[in-house]
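Lab notebook page, bench 4
Experiment: in silico fold of construct C2
Operator: M.H.
Input chain length: 318 residues
Purpose: comparison with the prior construct
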Amino acid sequence: MKILTPLRNLNDINVLADAGAGEFYMGFTDPAWREQFGMYTDLNRCSLYEEANKASIEDIRYYADKAHRRETALYVVLNAPWYGDRELDYLKHYLQELSDAGVDGIIVSTPEQIELVRKYGMKAVASVMSSVYNSDIARYYRDCGANRIILPRELSTEAIAQIIDNVPEVEYEAFLMRNACRHADSYCLGLHGGVYGGLCYDQALQDSMLNMPQDTGPDKINERKYNNYLYDRVFRSSSCGQCAIWRLLGNGIAAVKIVGRMESADEIAGSVRLTGYNKKIAETVNSEAEYLLHMRMPENRYDYCASGLSCYYPEVRF
């Protein structure tokens, strides 16, 4: 089971590989795309966050070369919620450049992209935008030619195990650490970035956007505002699945994902080291009870664990 981490700067590769990262994912920016389609047609899910896409398409070959010298894989995200025929056609010259650069795979969001990616000799990874909530959907993406499927954050470890048992012919990736969202990615049509930021993030920060009846009492107002605060500061920012590593490993998950394309490498490296430590524990013990006894919790475990709101897989914790 590999540890997959976000990549923002070329120098971060050594920091994260030293911490134990086995795979990287990243985005890139291209002014020509924006000139062609406008600023509100996403190239990837975080197109409008410049700090998440610092590299240009020309830079990718340096990232791929350095990643491979550290014996790690590099995936590039082209996972916007939607691409029309014109956009798909425009993606072809990116795919040629990415293939020439030695990129291992492309994280895609539509079935139409899969055949294109495979045509250029790279792995096609069906992103969380593909809504793989059950075996039938997993089977569909397998038949489309996907090499790997990223499972939604909302799935339980039991549901993950059922999908992998029923459709074992592809690799599977599961979320493990850091940023989450109260909404399902694949059904979110909100724009990430721009003047107002992500819709979910904006909702969480502005109490004025909470929709409450005029006769709502102060106790209920405070309760909803506090709930709003918890979802933003605890669940969205500090999600964790460390307790589930033993199950995910046993389920046959190929990679666990550390989220945070806009966070510093040092912060992400801490999550990678913790995951690597607990992965080794999971590989050596004989039971989940033994794993939970010997695993290491996050340093700020009371922020993560006290409320239970930060759990990616709460069925393990509870």
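Observations: Residues 265-284 form the longest helix (20 residues). The longest strand covers residues 171-178.
Next step: discuss at group meeting.
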